[in-house]
Design brief:
Structural class: mainly alpha
Shape: globular
Strand content: under 5%
Distance between the termini: 27 Å
Largest sheet: none
Radius of gyration: 18 Å
Length: about 190
């Protein structure tokens, strides 16, 4: 469990530099140069992700059950993941979804984590999803506050980007539901 927690904290910490230390991050980018900063950031992200995955696989081999999810929760998670994939698809666009939400990827991570937190009562997944939920919720609130303080307006380019996000998100959701989740995670959402 220690390896997993170190990996989780390192991963969330690396991805929180812009959130909690934006001046330090900017100073490092300028000092190292954009290319070296991105290389070091990517290396730290991959190393912490590897540590987290390795530790999670160890913890998963000897699970500690905290609670048993209620029957039928799987269906709620499956349905709830559709907007997650749509939000992820909308995060790179300039549609109304981005205008309304502001930071769709952060909200998608928060919803993903909440849904999976409800669906798995084992200790390691609970820590994983609770950690990501707390991090993403803070991210959403801080980014929205920064947008308000800087008077940032997310302009929409019409409904075409939203239609594309809806189509792409739905397609990837279906592919992940029927094939990807089992292949990547080892769990079949449909049983």
């Amino acid at each position: 469990m220690t390896i997993f927690l170190l990996g989780l904290l390192a991963f969330l910490g690396v991805h929180s530099t812009g959130l909690f230390a934006p001046q330090w991050r900017q100073a490092q980018r300028q000092s190292l140069g954009e290319g070296r900063w991105k290389a070091l950031y990517s290396l730290a992200s991959l190393a912490s992700l590897g540590l987290m995955v390795w530790g999670f696989s160890i913890a998963r081999a000897d699970p500690v059950v905290l609670w048993v999810p209620p029957r039928g929760i799987r269906h709620m998670v499956i349905a709830g993941m559709l907007p997650v994939f749509v939000l992820l698809a909308a995060s790179g666009g300039k549609g109304r979804i981005r205008q309304w939400v502001g930071h769709p990827m952060s909200l998608a991570i928060a919803i993903w984590a909440l849904l999976h937190l409800l669906a798995d009562g084992r200790l390691a997944p609970t820590l994983l999803f609770a950690g990501f939920l707390a991090w993403a919720a803070i991210l959403v609130f801080v980014r929205r506050a920064r947008d308000r303080n800087a008077n940032v307006q997310h302009r929409a380019a019409g409904f075409a980007p939203d239609a594309l996000a809806l189509a792409a998100g739905t397609l990837v959701w279906a592919l992940f539901l029927f094939f990807g989740h089992e292949w990547l995670i080892g769990v079949r959402p449909l049983g």
